[in-house]
User: Fold these one by one.
Assistant:
Number 1:
Amino acid sequence: MFAGSLLQRTQYLAPRAVLIIVAYYLFTVFFVSPVGNFPLNDDWTYGEAIRHWVSSGRFELGASCATCFLHIALGGLACKIFGFSYAILRTVTLSLGFIGALAFYLTLREVGLSKASAGLFALVLVANPLRVNLSFSYMTDIAASSFTSLYFLFFVRGIKKDAAPNYALASVMLLATLATRQTAVVYIICNFAVLLTYWLRKRHSWTIMLALIVLPILWTWGLGQLMQHYSAYPAGYFWFRNELAAQMREFLHRPLGALFAYLVSAGQVSCYFGLFFAPVLVPCVLSLKDLFKSKVKILPVCFAISAGTISLTLAKVVVAGQKLMPFNQNLLRMPAVG
């Protein structure tokens, strides 16, 4: 009943969800403004690589933990056309972010959500303060998440229609994500899980095997070799890659032994999403009465698990570790959470 009442109050999103997302983007551009020929955050790393490439024609990558070749190529193409400027680079980020938001909306529609529900969650995504902050920089986060959204869109369509062209497009978007930020390698596990379900149904899909598993693995290896060759400071990249590999090995070899670490990570994710989903509750206060009138019973154990996990995280990370995550840290930089 509560969910139904909430969706009734968001029906105005149904016919104009995309227009509202466009309006929100225009509002943030007007309010924040991408203008200014100066770097923000750590995007000077990519900006200086682009500047050097545009001016000299030689590719040299500074301190970067990300396999950012596509990221630099897109920025370099824009700067070759319009001239080098961090304002141009931020415009590229904003454009990619908008495409990613639309892909996210369309993916939600593909999995069966109504226009109102998909519009609501797409707005939650684009209004995320961390996303807004990164949208006005030339960090790799927005580009990688946008390519990921496109990958999921085509992957879901491929599963629904069992269509090789959609799987091929999903493969292209996954390769684009990997060429922007290497943490997308974990999606290969998702692709293998889908392939396994095909095998269990005695169906064989060479398209998924080659396009979404074999090719991304070879692509990831090749990107690692390029990072070793072109990066002026490859130690940072290899540190990040080794951390991610260590987390995956721990998960595969000792899943129960690492349970405490996983609970802490789950609590961090819960705190993070709770923090940024909280504004959604404000226009829904009037609908809360429907929740209490509902006859649906929520098991006490659900509250206990949620409260226990979050409390454990706050005690371990904030109190014991003296870290303010999730309030001032970027989830995409944390291999354990990823």
Note: The first helix runs from residue 2 to 8.
Number 2:
Amino acid sequence: MTEDTFDAVVVGGGPAGATIADDLATAGRSVLLLDRAGRIKPCGGAIPPRCIRDFHIPDHLLVARARAARIVAPSERYVDMAIDNGTVGLVDREVFDEWLRERAADHGAMREAGTFERLDRGADGLSRITWKPQQGGGPRTVRARMVIGADGANSAVARQGLPDQAQPPFVFAYHEIVRVDGTMPADFDPDRCDIHYDSRVSPDFYAWVFPHGPTASIGTGSAMKGFPLRPAVADLRARLGLERAETLRREGAPLPLKPLKRWDNRRDVIVAGDAAGLVAPASGEGIYYAMASGRLVAEAVEEALHSGDARALATARRRFMKQHGKVFLILRVMQHFWYASDKRRERFVSICRDPDVQRLTWTSYLEKELGRPEPMAHLRIMMKDFAHLFGMVSPWGRST
């Protein structure tokens, strides 16, 4: 049988893979988008304004708009951080990811539901992708000039195509989508995202409650092997008065918190999104970075196909790290220091009361840029950080 040949085969149809397939198909390339139907990643679903703007996300996909965040300390004291002149969009990944895949198909990508099995190379030099259809039947094989792995943190494409790349550190995330119509406590705000820093719900990361209109995502994450994620979510739900709310979905998955040192094999394989390690430390944000990396990978693949020079593939990582590498480093350092214990988390939450911290946090999050340097604001924050790290003040501001 004659094997179909594609300019690109994209394995994985989440935000990264769907963006790559859409961009390449729009550019006129023949694309196969291979995805395991029914797989939904645990995710609060937050997307900042830049993501909505850059990737033309329509309003009907936003199930809620958050206008503030509540940061809750281990003592259950909290800080409310209002967003000035802006909102954070919330999406349901089940609907959002499928819409992205359909958009790619509408622009010419071929969709197939199945599981990637093997990456080989034929006598003609082209990669061969073997996959098993989800609807049954024997394995199928196609040829590809370029293979893109967007198949998550445990990427099979990365393992086979980039075998020398060490896996990044993981946080294991778990959440439950629950129905909240008429069941939320009196202080619940459907326009607010709540973030809980507390060892009872996560010893080294955080737990969240994100509004999704008539539902909510309640979840947690931890890099500590064996930490009981489900009981932690159950504990949080009980404290919120949601233990009897209807549970619609339960999902879990690893989140990689450090970009791979290399994304491509210098020939015809490249990875993006979670497969490239692109979930932000400290915040756990992944949707925007997945889509941003997808766009850069699509541009690099298009250039490599057009020029015949595989060195173009390396430009995707270089450009991503130039744009976002400093933020990833800052967040990794922040997580290392402030998430280490409940004592430090208490201090971290108290620091979030500071107007400078709130303004700079929202500026960098909403637009994905560090923004215009503000030397005095950064100096004030640094001095307060040192005061808390060395115990010179109490968590909520009284001198020790």
Note: The two ends are 78 Å apart (CA to CA).
